[in-house]
Amino acid sequence: MPPVSPFYGCCYLLRRLHPFGQYILYRPRVAKEILLGARARPSALFAPSASCAMFSLRSRCLLGLQLYRTSSTAPQAIDIHHRSVILGSSSWQLQKRDEPTGRNDSPVFHSKCSGRDCGVVGERVTVLTIDGGGIRGLIPGTVLAFLEEQLQKLDGPEARLADYFDYIAGTSTGGLITAMLAAPGNNWKRRPLFAAKDINPYYLKHGPHIFPQKCCGLAAVLATAWGPKYDGEYLRTETRGLLRQKRVRDTVTNVIIPTFDVKLQQPIIFSKYDETLKDALLSDVCIGTSAAPTYLPAHQFWTQGCQYNLIDGGVAANNPTMVAMTMITEEIMAKAKKGDPKATKILESSSKKNECGRLLVLSIGTGLRSDEAHQYTARMCSEWGILGWLRKRGMAPIIDIFMAASSDLVDIHVASKFKLFGCESNYLRIQNNTLCSATAAVDTATPENMRRLIGMGKSMLEQRVTRVNVTTGKYEVVPGDNRTNAQALQDLAKELYKERKERRMKDEQASGGVARR
C-alpha cells in the first residue's frame, strides 16, 4: 500500500475499523485524537471507550482516553490487511489468535473459545441491552418473558432478570423496559417493579393511548409538518404515575439509558456511575429517551441544578450495547483505581486474556425490515423534500434510516470485537429481520399490529441462532450451531444461574453463612 498523508490515513483506518468512522471523518480533530494518540496507547483504539466517542459527556466526548500526543513524525503507512499500523518509527500489532485454515487474509482472527477463554464463573460481568423501536418493544418483551421463565425454572418463581444482570441498558422503548425491570417496587424488599411477563400486557394496555391512531395519509403528513405527531401527554402522565419519585440511583441493578441533549448537542448517558445524573427521576429519563423526533415532543427537566433538553437516545445509540460496554469499563477502572478488590481482580483477569472474556452480553433488537420490504431507492429519495423525508407511506424515513444505521454499526462492531478475541459465545444478539412495512412502523399501536409483533417475537425464538456478517452486515445462521434462539436463551439462563449461584456462595462464605437472595 503506498504512503498516505496523516489525515487520509486516519480516515482510512477509521472507516475500516471504527463503528462511527463515517461520523468522525467530518471531525478531523477527533480523528487526530484517536489515531495520532495511538502511538501512546494503541490498544485504546479498540477499547469500548473509543467505540463510543459520540456517547460520552462533553468532558469525555473525545473518547475520554487522553490519547493525543503531539508528534512531528507523520504516519508513513497504514496496512489493514497485515494488521499493522506504522506511526513514525514505532509500530503495533493487533492481538493475533489462531487463524482458521484458508482464512489467512482475514482481518479478524477467531478461534473457538472454551469456558476458560470466555471468563471465570462468578467473575463475569453480565449485561442485557435492549434496542429502541417504539411499539416494537413488544418483540423484546416477548423474548425477555421467555428468558425469565427459564430462570424461574432453575431458581424459583421469585427470580427476576435484575437478579442476574449486573447492567441493563436500553434506548427509547428499551429505556422504558429497562426502568420497568430495574425500578424498585413499592415495598421494603426492593424487588423489581415489574416481572418480564408483565411488559407486554403493559404495552397492550397503554400503547394505543400513547400512539392514538387518529389520522393517516395527508393529515398525518401535515400534522408532522407543524409539530410532533403525538402530544406525549399520556406518556408523561402514565410514566410519572408508574415510576413516581424513583430515581436512577434507586434501581435494584445498574441501568444505562442513552438520551440526546439538543441544547448541548451531545449524548447524555444516565447511569449510577455519574453523581449528578444518578439523581435524575427515572420518569424524566424515560420520557426523554422516548422523545423520538417528529413523533413525540422533546423533554426538559432539571436535576441538581443542571438543565437537560432531551430527545430520543436512538439518534445516537439505538443499540446501546457499545455504550454499556464503555460505561462498564470506565466504572470498573474507576473502582479499581480507588482500591476496590473486586474491580481490581476483574481488571487483572481480563488483562491476562481479553476484555471481552469478562463480559456475558445479551442484546435484543426490536426488528428490522426484510429485504423485500426495503422500499427506498435513490430515485425515490432524490425526489423528496423536507416533508418526504419526514413522512412517507406511514413511516419517517430520515428517523428510520438514522436509527437502523446506528443499531447495525454497533452490532457489527461488537460482533467483531468478540470474534477478534475468540469469545463469540459470550455475545448473543437476537434480532428479527422479517418485518414488513406495516409492522416496521414504531407507532402502529393497533390491536392487530400489536398481536403481530408478539407473534414475531415468538417466531423469533423458534429461529436458528444468527450472527451478523461483519462484511455484508446481513444476519446469517451460525455455521455449526443448530440451536434455536429459545435453546440459546435456555443455555444462557443456565450460565446466568451458575454465575449468580457462585457469587451467592462467595457472599455466604464472606458473611459467615448468611447469603443474600
TrEMBL record:
A motif (DGA/G) lies at residues 312-314. GO terms for biological process: defense response; lipid catabolic process. It comes from the Eukaryota. Keywords: Hydrolase, Lipid degradation, Lipid metabolism, Plant defense. A motif (GXGXXG) lies at residues 132-137. Residues 128-325 form the PNPLA domain. InterPro entries: Acyl_Trfase/lysoPLipase, PNPLA_dom. It holds the Pfam family Patatin. The active site is at 172 (nucleophile), 312 (proton acceptor). One of its GO terms (molecular function) is lipase activity. The keyword Hydrolase applies. It is an enzyme of class 3 (hydrolase). Its EC number is 3.1.1.-. A motif (GXSXG) lies at residues 170-174. Lipolytic acyl hydrolase (LAH). Possesses non-specific lipolytic acyl hydrolase (LAH) activity. Hydrolyzes phospholipids as well as galactolipids. May play a role in disease resistance. Belongs to the patatin family. The nitrogen atoms of the two glycine residues in the GGXR motif define the oxyanion hole, and stabilize the oxyanion that forms during the nucleophilic attack by the catalytic serine during substrate cleavage. This is Patatin. It comes from Urochloa decumbens. The lineage of its organism: Eukaryota, Viridiplantae, Streptophyta, Embryophyta, Tracheophyta.
